[in-house]
Amino acid sequence: MPPRRKLNEFERGRAVAWFQDGVPKREVARRLHVSISVIVRLIQCFTATGRVQERRKPGRPKKTTLREDRLIERLALQTRTASSSIIRRQLRVATNTNISQQTIRNRLHGFNLR
Predict the structure, then answer these.
(1) What is the distance between the alpha carbons of residues 63 and 69, in angstroms, rounded to a whole number?
(2) One digit per residue, pLDDT tens: the chain, 114 residues?
(3) Which end of the chain is more exposed for a tag (fewer CB within 10 A), N or C?
(4) Sign of CA dihedral 26, 15, 51, 61
């Protein structure tokens, strides 16, 4: 089975509208190219809450943005021997973001870099 695809808000609204118009769940899933379980969970969530927005995810929010993450990766790839403290200083100069060296190492680990 292909990896699970997330529906954006427009697609979720469309799926609920089709379901309310009497289209079977299997047909809604086929039209959106997703598993029927995705549609079943969406309909259950909609009937319970009346909303199609995603629920908030638990956990602490990330300290860095996606743009800063890409910059960390680019800095590490440009200078392969740069330590996390050097990357941290370069990031602070470029974006005025103060993060710890451990955060830099965590992001690099996420990119399969050291």
Answers:
(1) 10
(2) 455 677 888 999 999 999 999 999 999 999 999 989 989 999 998 888 888 877 777 888 889 999 999 999 999 999 889 999 999 999 999 999 899 999 999 999 999 987
(3) N
(4) positive
Nearby residues of 31 by Cβ (< 8 Å), 6 or more positions away? 18, 23
What residues have CB less than 8 Å from 17, skipping those under 6 apart? none
Q: What letter represents residue 18's amino acid?
A: W
Rounded to whole angstroms, the maximal C-alpha distance in the chain is: 61
In 10 A of CB 69, how many CB atoms? 15
Q: How far is residue 39's CA from residue 27's CA, in Å, rounded to a whole number?
A: 10
| Chain centroid, CA 92 distance in Å | 25
